[in-house]
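Lab notebook, design round three. We kept the backbone fixed and only want residue identities now. Task for the bench partner: fill in a sequence for the structure below.
Input structure tokens:
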């Protein structure tokens, strides 16, 4: 008989800057389905059920319990030597054979029924292994099976990983001073920071990760890699990276340091246009942005280029604050929608004294994600900002971290966010009005370019832009490439924040380019 124990509440944590508060109802602690070895106060699969409750009630999409329990069971089976186990599936009933014994189970869309079936498999694997497969391993594998069946960003964190996540949120961590990203299922270095352990060791952009502390990187989430790289200051970490140009692996042992990250770089271009390169959205981003805006005011700047390329995102609150500096107070920046109709939140412009009348061009690429897409989408939908570059990544979901009763935790996708005009960022990304085809890198079509109702108004090849500007004597480099030069020329001598006028100037420039 299943026992309901409603006398216990679970504590839960929350990712800073995402949602103000989430309530978790009292959990129903179900017993082991009447099995003889259950025991009245048996705690088997207690954490698993907490996870199932959270996924069932908080996940952004309604639960498919048959799919969830199937993934959990198959997760548990992975603990067994594949030579000793077989799983035969058919529409009527599944047969699991381990060594010389077998058990049968059938999953439906009834959660209580599937819960009993999962327990049957759980005890079968534990007992038939002569208890060499621990209950703890079976439970954590079942949880990981569920999380892997959801989405890329939902993740189970054991006690150590959860502690690291909370420590990182509080800012009490050390790092190596490198920006990492994922491309084509490869985790690699985007850049290293000045005078950081990574830069001093000679790590270069485009070096790809092979292992960290002996742990292979294959199929690892970028969040998992970040967790391995971060740690307390003065602790060591050993990395093996592959340098593609030389096809050679290198191993480094580095000591972590407290890294003070400057996320905003500012300079004035051609005495008229302010250039703001924002690399991520951390707790310090708006404060650093204000420093650049103050300098721009002193220089009499008449327009801004916001370069959000390679920006993986960060804090939602910071993206709202950054966008607010360029919008009317009260204008919508972004809204989030959870599964329930009433799980809806709007975020609007914060500042009365803003730069809403100043023309802006925003540069994005296929690695601009999350918070950077919020800023680009808000300013684009306002009708004042022109978007230039590539389709953005398309990361339009909000993750909330929940603390489980044993000290572990979940990072769970709880809602999606949309631009003010209702564009689903996950589905479409931010589509630029001026699409720069990066044919210099041999990429005529990017994997992240989304096919949908939103199309670019103008397509230009990077190679054509390079030739055009170089013939005019413009010196191009990594910090001032042809896309930045194009944005500069579009904004130059423009005094009104008008996307229509900016597109007219873009077409005038394009008419002189052989593209």
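Proposed sequence:
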């Amino acid at each position: 008989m299943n026992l309901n124990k409603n006398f216990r509440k679970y504590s839960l944590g929350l990712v800073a800057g995402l949602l103000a508060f989430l309530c978790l109802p009292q959990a129903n602690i179900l017993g082991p389905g009447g099995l003889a070895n259950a025991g009245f106060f048996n705690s088997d699969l207690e954490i698993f059920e907490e996870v199932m409750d959270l996924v069932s009630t908080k996940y952004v999409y309604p639960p498919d319990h048959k799919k969830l329990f199937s993934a959990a069971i198959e997760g548990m089976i992975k603990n067994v030597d594949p030579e000793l186990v077989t799983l035969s599936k058919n529409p009527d009933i599944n047969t699991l054979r381990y060594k010389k014994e077998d058990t049968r189970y059938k999953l439906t869309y009834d959660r209580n029924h599937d819960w009993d079936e999962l327990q049957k498999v759980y005890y079968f694997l534990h007992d038939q292994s002569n208890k060499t497969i621990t209950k703890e391993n079976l439970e954590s594998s079942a949880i990981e099976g569920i999380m892997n069946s959801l989405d890329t960003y939902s993740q189970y964190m054991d006690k150590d990983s959860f502690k690291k996540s909370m420590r990182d949120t509080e800012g009490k961590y050390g790092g190596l001073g490198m920006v990492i990203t994922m491309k084509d299922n490869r985790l690699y270095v985007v850049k290293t920071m000045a005078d950081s352990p990574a830069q001093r060791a000679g790590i270069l952009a485009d070096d790809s990760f092979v292992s960290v502390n002996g742990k292979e990187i294959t199929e690892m989430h970028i969040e998992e890699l970040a967790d391995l790289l971060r740690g307390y200051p003065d602790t060591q970490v050993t990395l093996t990276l592959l340098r593609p140009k030389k096809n050679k692996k290198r191993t480094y042992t580095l000591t972590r340091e407290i890294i003070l990250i400057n996320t905003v770089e500012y300079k004035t271009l051609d005495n008229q246009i302010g250039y703001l390169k924002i690399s991520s959205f951390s707790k310090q981003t708006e404060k650093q942005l204000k420093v650049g805006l103050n300098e721009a005011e002193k220089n009499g700047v008449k327009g801004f280029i916001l370069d959000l390329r390679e920006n993986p995102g960060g804090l939602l609150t910071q993206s709202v604050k950054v966008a607010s500096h360029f919008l009317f107070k009260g204008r919508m920046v972004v809204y989030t929608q959870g599964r329930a109709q009433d799980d809806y939140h709007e975020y609007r412009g914060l500042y009365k004294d803003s730069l809403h009348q100043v023309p802006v061009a925003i540069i994005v690429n296929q690695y601009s994600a999350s918070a950077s897409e919020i800023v680009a989408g808000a300013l684009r939908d306002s009708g004042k900002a022109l978007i230039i570059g590539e389709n953005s990544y398309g990361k339009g979901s909000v993750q909330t971290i929940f603390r489980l009763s044993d000290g572990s935790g979940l990072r769970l996708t709880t809602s999606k966010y949309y631009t003010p005009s209702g564009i689903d960022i996950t589905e479409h990304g931010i589509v630029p009005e001026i699409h720069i085809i990066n044919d210099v890198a041999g990429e005529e079509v990017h994997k992240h370019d989304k096919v949908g109702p939103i199309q670019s108004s103008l397509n230009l090849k990077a190679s054509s832009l390079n030739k055009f500007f170089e013939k005019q004597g413009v010196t191009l480099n990594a910090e001032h490439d042809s896309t930045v030069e194009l944005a500069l020329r579009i904004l130059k001598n423009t005094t009104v924040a008008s996307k229509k006028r900016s597109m007219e100037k873009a077409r005038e420039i394009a008419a002189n380019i052989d593209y």
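Keep this in mind before ordering anything: Residues 237 and 254 are 6 Å apart (CA to CA).
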